[in-house]
Amino acid sequence: MALPAPPPARVFAELVPAQAPTPTRAPAGRGGPPAPSGRELHVSGSAELSAGPDRARVSLRLGSRKGAAGAARRSVARRLEYIAQSARQRGVPEENMTVTEDFSRVENTYQMEAEVCITFSDFGKMQNVCNLLIEKLGTSVTISPPHFYHTPEAIDTLRRQVCVAAVGNTRRKAQEVCRLFGQSLGKPLLIREEETKEWGGHIDSHLLNSPDSLTLQERIQNATAYASCRVFAVFEIKGKENRRNKLL
Question: Which biological process annotations from GO are given for this protein (predicted)?
Answer without folding.
Answer: immune response; positive regulation of canonical NF-kappaB signal transduction
